[in-house]
Amino acid sequence: MREADGTLEPISRETFAELVRMYHHRVLKKALSLSNDPHAAADIVQETWLRAWTNRHALRDITAFGRWVEVICQREAWALLRRSRPQEPLDEEGPAARDWHSAPSEDDEVAGLYAGMGRLSPHDVEILSLKYFAGYSMRQIAVWLDIPEKRVKSRLYEARQRLFRAIGTAGDPRSLRVQFSHRREQVMDKIRLLELGASCLVRMSLKGQEAMLRTARDNQPFSEEVLSELRGIDQGAEFLLLCDGKLDISEFMWILAGCDPWLADRLLSSQQDDRSRLLGSAPGGYTVLETAPVMTVPDLEATVAWFVQTLGWNGGIDAWDEQGRGTYGSVLLGVGEAVHQRVRPFNGIHLSRGRPPSEGCMLAMLYVEGLDRLHERVKASGWGRITDIVATPWASGVCDLTTLDGYLLRIFETAKA
């Protein structure tokens, strides 16, 4: 269904649940190919579905859902892995194999299953996901794959045996069904939590919203003030039951991402204390306020690594050519969870493969807070191509930083009122 202006109506939770069933195999295979780490892949899959849910209004054509969600998965993989392992390139060998058989936790069991899936062909991953994650019947899978039902049974048996050999167990089809269906339920429970949380949050007073943010930041149960407001909101009791009376900061930011941007701006900037805490959680202790230039560079991987190492920014590559070389990416300074959850504007630099201009070409002027800390971080990283900070008639402090590719970033800070 489309709105009067031709845009797609927001996808309902029921429709989204069916899309999760249909396209889980593509997201899983993509996550495994990008991470080389089954634990990380499990996180990437969940983050992808949460991001797809919060951004579902941006989907223009539901027939393009598969490709759209793969792009989201690709971006989430880069974001997650850069945050967790900022010094480690993604194309290197993954961490040493874990011993999946020594008192495995639930996460280890899932990671072991994902590790085995990562060794299978896309066709095997697809048919196993359709059967055990989506819960489709043999007839439904036959229709989806456009093959005879008898062929579905034989392909499913062969794929299952290859999976059990990959994870080194005799295997039981019922265990696959339990594990996959549990993962599906976890995803949909989380989406229901975000849906209910956003519905409740927008109905709370600013004071109540701030109180919920504080408890989430401190990872504490909801305060009496929050409980009192939720008690008077329709579906507040259901939300309270689903979240067990508390949220962590990541869950809160996911919920905030599902609300109108004005709410995020009002809530995160409502108090100077909140502003200072967010600034303090930023890499290097400073935040870029305005910039979105484009750099042409010969080696995107090297440039991203330089920004991560020297400035503490996040970065990733979003497009590659047929030879696997990066053609487009970006680097940005993330302010806690706010930028990651897309509730704050992009503050960073776009990267495009190409020949950079002459040495010393001015790329951008960066207006920052915490210039002294930025300068100290660059020096501590071992990069020497940064000038001393000097005062000017128009800024309290200015310095020039030359990047790995010879671009000049003029960085300044104004006097605080």
Question: Mind explaining what this structure looks like?
Answer:
With 417 residues, the protein is of the alpha+beta class. Helices cover 53% and strands 13% of the residues. It contains 17 helices and nine strands. A five-stranded mixed sheet has the order 1-6-9-8-7, with no helix packed on it. A hairpin with a 5-residue loop joins strand 8 and strand 9. The longest helix has 29 residues. It is globular. The N terminus is likely disordered.
Structure classification:
alpha+beta
In what range is the share of β-strand residues?
Answer: 5-15%
Biggest beta sheet attributes: 5 strands, mixed
Low-pLDDT residue spans: 1-7, 85-104, 335-343
- Tell me the series of helices and strands, N- to C-terminal: HHHHHHHHHHHHHHEEHEEHEEHEEE
Radius of gyration: 24 Å
Q: Residue-averaged pLDDT, rounded?
A: 78
Q: What sort of overall outline do the alpha carbons produce when their principal axes are compared?
A: globular
Ends: how far apart? Answer: 51 Å
Q: How are the strands ordered across the major sheet?
A: 1-6-9-8-7
Helical content class: 40-55%
**Number of DSSP E strands:** 9
Secondary structure layout plus pairing:
Blueprint: H1 13-35, H2 38-54, H3 65-84, H4 106-117, H5 122-133, H6 138-145, H7 149-167, H8 173-201, H9 206-217, H10 224-231, H11 236-243, H12 249-257, H13 261-268, H14 272-281, E1 287-290, E2 294-297, H15 300-311, E3 314-320, E4 326-332, H16 336-340, E5 348-353, E6 362-369, H17 371-380, E7 390-392, E8 395-402, E9 408-413
Parallel strand pairs: 2-5, 6-9
Antiparallel strand pairs: 1-6, 3-4, 4-5, 7-8, 8-9
